Amino acid sequence: MLWPVETRSVSPVFVGRTDELGALDEALTRAGGAEPQALLLGGEAGVGKTRLVEEFATAACRRGAVVALGGCVEIGADGLPFAPFSSALRTLRAALPDEWAAAAAGQEEELARLLPELGEATTSRHDEQGTARLFELTARLLERIAADRTVVLVLEDLHWSDASTRHLLAYLLRTLRTGRLVVLATYRSDDIHRRHPLRPLLAELDRLRTVHRLELARFNREEVGRQIAGILAAEPDPAQVDEIFDRSDGNAFFVEELAVAGAESCRTGLTDSLRDLLLVRVEALPESAQRVARVVAEGGSTVEYRLLEAVAGLAEDDLIEALRAAVGANILTPTPAGDGYRFRHSLVREAVADDLLPGERSRLNRRYAEALEADPALVPADARVTRLASYWYQAHDPAKALPAVLDASVVARRRHAYSEQLSLLERAMELWDTAPEEIRAALRPVDYTDVYPPCGCDPVTTPLRYLDLMAEAAVAGRFCGERERALKITKKALRILEDDDDAQRAAWFWVQRSRLVQGLGRGDGWQELGTAQGLVRGLPPSEVHADVLANVAAWSMLHEPGPEALAAAERAVEYARMVGAREIELNARITLGCLMVDAGDVGNGLRELERVRDAALQEGVAHVAGRAYVNLPSELDSVGRSRESVPILREGLVFARRFGLLDSEAWIWGNLSDSLYTLGQWDEAAEAAAGALGSAASAKPRGAGALRLAHIALARGDAEEAARQLAISHAHYGTHDPMPQALLPVARIAIGVAAAQGRLLDARTELDRALAFGFWPGTQRYGWPLLLAAATAEADARALPAAADGRTEVLDRLAEAVRKLATGAPVWQAYERWTRAELHRAHGTDTAALWSDVVTDFETLDRPYDLARVRRRLAQALLEEAAGDDERERARELLRLAGAVAEHLGARPLADAVALLAQRARLTLTGKTPGRALDPAESLGLTIRERDVLRLVSAGRTNRQIAEELFISPKTASVHVSNILGKLGVAGRGEAAAVAHRLGLFPVEALDPTR
Question: Is the pTM of this model over 0.85?
Answer without folding.
Answer: no
